[in-house]
């Protein structure tokens, strides 16, 4: 079942990150759209990740074949472009050039490839991969007793709260690791899993399916540090506040469950396009900002050039890297599956 609204939601999440980083780097609007506000875009990504996994897989058996397909699908979607970006970043520094990201030592390279550390925006990929592993366990439990998922999520949220979100980071023989990122991001992924569990079976009354329920999306900019009326530490320490989790989950539920599927603001070709290239947009926009920020031109022109360049680069990346590598990985797996079935039949 294709949920077209999710494409635009991905595009919104990526746009929040892009605009925030542009504001921080260039000082656009005196940094009013910056100040860590990009974290809200990342929260949306993690909510989407948990939602899609439970929505797509919980009604399937957690057997060996389905888990293999899941692993191949998730790997093909995320890993190839990430590995290419990491390898290029290190290679460029090794040969004396400015890299895409600051991966200047072998230890840092290893940490990135092991998904235990990340520079700049790359930090989000490690938790995402770790969530993929965690989800296999949740999937098996859901196949056995789905009600235990609620217990697990509740216990994890309570433990994280009373343990003050432990800062697990350091290095091992010079190889850095930072598991604090997964600790602080895990509640968003788990809440996304809970929301996705019920999407197929939810019976939302027609009188609640209204376009007006797109309005809660406006709560996200209202939480930006420069605009927010919030006076608690949730204003700047958003990952560590369940107040923010509550608001972001409410926004997500409103869009997913209450906004009609044919809402023109969320179901349109622009949203479809930007949603498809959102991963490349996210991974590749920072070097583009750094490059364009050195130009001597009005900041509005920098913004236009940044956005147009980022979209073009992301499309090329999606068209020539993401799609072909994902298709290749899946086809190799499918070929192996067919060969195994042929051997079994021949026996």
TrEMBL record:
Tagged with keyword Membrane: yes
GO process annotations (BP): polysaccharide biosynthetic process
Residue ranges of domain Acyltransferase in the record: 5-317
Keyword terms, alphabetized: Membrane, Transmembrane, Transmembrane helix
Coiled coil: none
Transmembrane feature ranges: 12-31, 37-58, 79-97, 109-135, 147-165, 177-199, 211-227, 239-259, 271-293, 299-321
UniProt cross-references to InterPro entries, sorted A to Z: Acyl_transf_3_dom (IPR002656), Acyltransferase_3 (IPR050879)
Database matches in Pfam families: Acyl_transf_3
Example of a GO cellular component annotation carried by this entry: membrane
GO MF, one annotated term: acyltransferase activity, transferring groups other than amino-acyl groups
Name recorded for this polypeptide: Acyltransferase 3 domain-containing protein
Source species: Pseudoalteromonas citrea
């Amino acid at each position: 079942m294709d949920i077209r609204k999710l494409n635009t939601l991905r595009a919104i999440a990526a746009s929040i990150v892009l605009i925030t980083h542009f504001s921080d780097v260039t000082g656009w609007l005196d940094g009013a759209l910056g100040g860590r506000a990009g974290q809200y875009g990342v929260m949306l990504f993690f909510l989407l990740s948990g939602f899609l996994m439970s929505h797509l897989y919980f009604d399937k058996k957690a057997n060996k074949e389905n888990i293999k397909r899941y692993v191949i699908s998730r790997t093909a979607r995320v890993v190839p472009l990430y590995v290419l970006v990491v390898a290029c970043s290190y290679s460029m520094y090794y040969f004396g050039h400015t890299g895409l990201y600051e991966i200047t030592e072998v230890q840092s390279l290893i940490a990135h490839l092991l998904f235990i550390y990340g520079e700049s925006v790359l930090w989000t990929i490690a938790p995402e991969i770790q969530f993929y592993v965690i989800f296999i366990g949740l999937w098996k439990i859901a196949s056995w007793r789905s009600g235990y998922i609620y217990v697990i999520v509740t216990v994890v949220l309570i433990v994280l709260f009373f343990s003050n979100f432990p800062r697990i980071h350091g290095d091992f023989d010079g190889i850095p690791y930072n598991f604090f990122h997964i600790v602080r991001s895990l509640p968003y992924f788990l809440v996304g899993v809970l929301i996705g569990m019920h999407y197929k079976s939810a019976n939302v009354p027609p009188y609640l399916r209204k376009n007006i329920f797109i309005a809660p999306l406006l709560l996200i900019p209202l939480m930006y540090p420069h605009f927010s009326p919030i006076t608690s530490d949730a204003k700047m320490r958003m990952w560590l506040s369940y107040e923010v989790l509550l608001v972001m989950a409410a926004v997500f539920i409103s869009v997913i469950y209450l906004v009609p599927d044919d809402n023109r603001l969320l179901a349109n070709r622009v949203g479809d396009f930007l949603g498809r290239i959102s991963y490349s947009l996210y991974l590749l926009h920072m070097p583009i900002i750094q490059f364009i920020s050195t130009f001597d031109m009005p900041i509005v022109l920098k913004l236009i050039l940044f956005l147009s360049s980022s979209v073009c680069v992301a499309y090329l990346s999606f068209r020539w890297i993401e799609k072909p590598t994902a298709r290749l990985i899946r086809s190799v797996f499918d070929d192996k599956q067919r060969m195994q079935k042929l051997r079994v039949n021949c026996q």
